[in-house]
Design goal:
TransReg_Diox_bact_type; Helix-turn-helix domain-containing protein; elongated; single chain; DNA-binding; Lambda_DNA-bd_dom_sf; Cro/C1-type_HTH; 3 domains
Length: 478
Amino acid sequence: MPPTSLELSTLGHRIRHQRLAHGYTLDELGALVGVAGSQLSLIENGKREPKLSLLQSIASVTGVEVAELLSAEPPNRRAALEIELERAQSSSVFRQLGVAPVKVTKGMSDETIESILGLHRELQRREREAIATPEEARRANTELRLRMRELDNYLPDIEKLAEKQLKAAGHVSGALTHRTVSIMAEKLGFELIYVNDLPHSTRSVTDLEHGRIYLPPASIPGGHGLRSMALQAMAHRLLGHERPTDYADFLQQRLEINYYAACCLMPETASVAFLQQAKKDRNLAVEDFRDAFGVTHEAAGMRLTNLATQHLGIRLHFLRVDGSGAITRVYENDDLPLPMDITGAVDGQMACRKFSARAAFDEQNRTTEHYQYTDTPAGTFWCSTQTGTTSAGEFSITVGVPFDDARWFRGRETQKRATSTCPDESCCRRAAPDVAARWSGKAWPSARVHMQMFSPLPRGAFPGVDDNEVYDFLDRHA
């Protein structure tokens, strides 16, 4: 891999430092190592990569090791300042201003460079803390959902990366163990450490300097969440993520690390073999897929959306709906009619009351999946829904397909059927005329105001994360 401009700049500074320390001019050192002074100047300014033989000659003449010239550390404070300024002036944040970069000269004092750097640091700080408006965030989320729809929710490069990492860790089949996840971390140079004092705004913290990934206590029941969190933390490194540049970048990174974790917990080769056999048997079921790999129902449902269209030729939809009926997670490529706002956003919209995703809350038996056919303006869909409860309240997980594909799924024989005409207001949003007339002017409900209605989007490069908490935590454990 060729060196970066920053690496070349650091190398150039170290060569210049040694040249000046020995009192050589460019031409004098050039004559000693067999190159023109002008060529040496290009190398010192980071404009040209020197051959190894030339580096060996420079090291020999100046009495140092080649490794010292190649060190990533600037040779002195002045060089460190110039390198930091070069990096700042090449950033996208600075380039967007359209301001000409400052050219550093020999006569420019360190204090002047420090002052300019202070302005750059403040510019970067303000950029990191820029607040995305709720509308901007919703648009970014919608654009990401539509991109994934075009890809049938399938990312082959991450699928291959996950299988490669699993093979290197010795995983062959069955549920992914905590031990194997630890081995995967070790191969990346990280140790998994479980602590009781993680910052409340984080799910995990990675200490890049000391090679540690901090996770919540290992006593959490089930363990799926811990494996997933560790895999997500590793994914940032494997996928080469940098600090998010905006909210859209943050969402893209979050999607990619979640996808990688899912690929590791439910590897493509094994998952596809399992699903293809179930389809052949006309017995596809999210609950079987879930149990075969030891993950949550939601994880299995989402993983099915990654693989069903690509490998089974089945288009489908996935919904997570909370107890109030609001859609909190969604994917569809089967044209299920979903409620949308003016920006095209689905998240936060109310699902139709007739949908299985909401009707399942009325079922007495919630230990098994709830099956239903729903006639809609876009056709008839078959759905399988499982409900659950967290500290935040009830939720349902739904996976559904168009009528013709129901033949591959367990539960297709259900007699439960509903009709939805949403987004027509008369379907489930508008009260029946006789009921509305009965109570018109005679009721005054007091609305439950959700605080998130007034909350700005979280600030910072990692939205919602308190940097002070994170740094205090790292200091405690370093």
